[in-house]
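Dissemination and training. As part of the outreach component of the grant, students in the summer workshop were shown how a complex can be specified as a set of sequence lines and then modelled as a single object. The example used during the hands-on session is reproduced here so that future cohorts can follow it. Participants entered these lines:
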Amino acid sequence: MDFRRRKSLWNISNQGSTRFIALPPEEFDLQTDEIVVNMGPQHPSTHGVLRLILRTDGEVVKQVQPEIGYLHRCAEKIGENLTVRQFTPYTDRLDYLAAMNMNLGWALCVEKLLGWQVPEKCRHLRVLMAELDRIASHLVAVGTYGLDLGSFTPFMYCFREREKILNLFEAVCGARLTYHYIVPGGVMADLPPGWLQECSRFLDQFPPTLADLHALLTTNYIFIRRTAGIGVLPLQTAISYGCTGPVLRASGLRWDLRRHGEPIYTQMYAPYDFQIVAPQEGQYPDDGISPAVPDEAVLGDCWHRFYVRMREIVQSVQIVRQAIRFYQEASGTVGEPMKIQQKLPVAEAYLETESPKGQLGFLIVGQGTPIPRRVRIRSGSFCNLSVLSELCRGCLVADVPAIVGSLDIVLGEVDR
Amino acid sequence: MVSQLRERFPEAILTENLEALDPWVQVAPAWLRQVCFYLRDDPQLRFQMLHLITAVDYLEKASSGPETVSEGHFELLYHLSSLEHRHRLVLKLRLPRWKEDRIGQLPEVPTVSDIWPAANWHEREVYDLSGVRFVGHPDLRRILCPEDWQGHPLRKDYSMSHQYQGIPGR
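and obtained this result:
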């Protein structure tokens, strides 16, 4: 039942086909009509309930208009009716593929508003969880991207590895998708005994999978032909549309909030040694695993966006290894979750963190009660998706799934 | 930075708070576009990235019957940053909750979607959820709610209708 009636769903002009046959042979020419194609919201390659309205001329896309809102769950309105502590589980449901990072962004924003500091051990534990979740999120991005382009095997490999990360998370907090683990004031519980050994075991057996993925996708001739030079996003366009995360970095800017963000966030990552993955003059620093850039790739195209994620997985593995060490060395507690009825000051706090999909920002406007006046969520996927109509102008219909997949959006975060 | 702005636009900058968690300046709505062009293009400032536009509803409950116009105002926030100089700034605009205090008349503010294309979707969202009309916006439609939705859900006096397309609410 179509109870969310929207105009132009049935606006498909299809007069061309019958007249085409009726033409006499000498006029049987390359005359094409403009056809409006409706893609989604139940299309598998749109990664959720995204609807695209394509205006096509033959195989060429003249205009793409994304229609969002099919997964709108009023998260901001809910935030105005609950205390900030009660709202924490709702942040899980934004980007459900990286719920740890969503929890982290919210927790840090509340702590910024209240002027809190969490103990050192808690900070390292948070980094550990956030980076593990970044690996899981990028594995989904990479795996489903292969699926979009017709390659099934890498998807299975990615989900096999992600499954192991989810098992680790389940041992920590009991949930496999919506964790509600990092909360304002600290984390919900310390690690169970033996968990760090399990985590190390995972990290030790993981890199060979990356080599497999590089063989199956990154250096695959068909994959390169489908992605290199497609959907090129110039740096200036990326910045003006507010694109962030791997999408911005693939356009050639070395910009990562883990290094360039606000002090409350960067101090977490200050002791860690990792590279910001971004091409400089088409080249990346050597990390020992990743293959070279093919000649066909253009700065800011789909291939680079994919490749930046692959390399960020390597960096995150490094960070997790360091986090295990720092966590073991640190003394003290893992923090105390805040009280449900904690009063907020009459002030505003806005904080952006680097989530796997882009920069995630939370705005809290306190009004002196435990319930905030306003909660605003700025999601990376929302801004990254808004550039889609710019990217798809003039591309082929078959390239649209390649471009949408390379942006790596999650509709839970777009629609909130 | 703010003194530079004050010098350039003496009438535009109303108040400022640089001690806040996120330092902000309050701009007169009529000057918004000039200030934004200057912020983006001045080589000392170069605010190339617009992170967020949002509206905060400061409704104060009306004292008497339904005839009285509810008191209060809207605050529009623009979060800007410069990747080059690594600084950030928040612009605040103060708007009436209703244009000319007539209920149902949405307040108006000039668009910045031609200055930062990122503003296009943010302004659509503010229009959809908070009910602020952006004059000059190329495509001001609802973005998250269905097109025939009634009202603007993030207004504090919003109450959900009991039925939508035959589906009972509540």
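Chain B has one domain: 2-61+69-157. Students were then asked to discuss how this feature might be tested experimentally.
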